[in-house]
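Database export, one record per block. Field names are fixed; values are copied verbatim from the stored entry.
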Amino acid sequence: MRIIRDTLFIDPADRGAAAAIGNFDGVHLGHQSVIDVTREAAASIGAPLGIMTFEPHPRSYFARDTNAFRLMNAEAKANRLARLGIEKLYEVTFNQTLAELSAADFAQEIIATRLGLKHIVVGADFCFGKGRSGTTADLQDFGANMGFGVTVAPMKEIANLEVSSTAIRTALTDGRPRDAAKMLGHWHRLEGEVISGHQRGRELGYPTANISIDGLHLPKFGVYAVKIDVLDGTHAGSYNGASSIGIRPMFDGDVPNCETFIFDFKGDLYGSTVSVALVDFLRPELKFDGLPALITQMDADCTTCRKILADV
């Protein structure tokens, strides 16, 4: 997959795709259904399969003081889209200039002129342009006049439940990762570079791979059974493990992070990128009466995680 970040000076070879437009936070089943429609459109006109998205997320641009809400960072989203066979990922910079474009100017300047898209696909709730004034009907009219096709994909439902990033966030907040996975079509994953911690896990006999979750929607704090993909380096591969997400109340922490103990693993992962998939929530964070009690609970947690993951 080719990622195009500089859309002002675009290579002519990167123009002319059939692309789905949206934020695609989580790349859930609703997003995947839109991508499937786009795949069919691309094949029918012989165009590359593309995605047009925005960085930073428009919601974070307009409401910078709100709580973190993203289900995945830009890198994790790109990794997921690549797995779905996307050929061109257009990461359009969202700034004040873009925010001020009218719906008509957005269609002409971004879709038609800058990217030269041949066909676009959007969800039924898609809005665009200054103040989200443009509708899917407007987009179809613009496409007819500006030379690009438009398909409006229906909303995806599962058992009469509309699939949405909001519903997925609620499931994660409640500690229901399997419900989130049903809507995502894959495990919810936390991805990032392994960073140095305080080495407390190593001292307790449970060395962990620590990643930052800054800027992401926070799942319910506690212990999870997880599947881990090491995405690069000499230890690249798939593993099982247990993760603690939260602020480490035993050690008076205050910055949330994700600490993962990888079963039957020996090696140095510092600097590697890992993807941690949340499978099951075991228990909330606890403060124990000393380290022996903590270690006893960690032993029990890992035993439970092994049993859960044996059936996944």
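Remark 1: DSSP finds ten helices and 14 strands in the chain.
Remark 2: The mean pLDDT is 92.
End of record.
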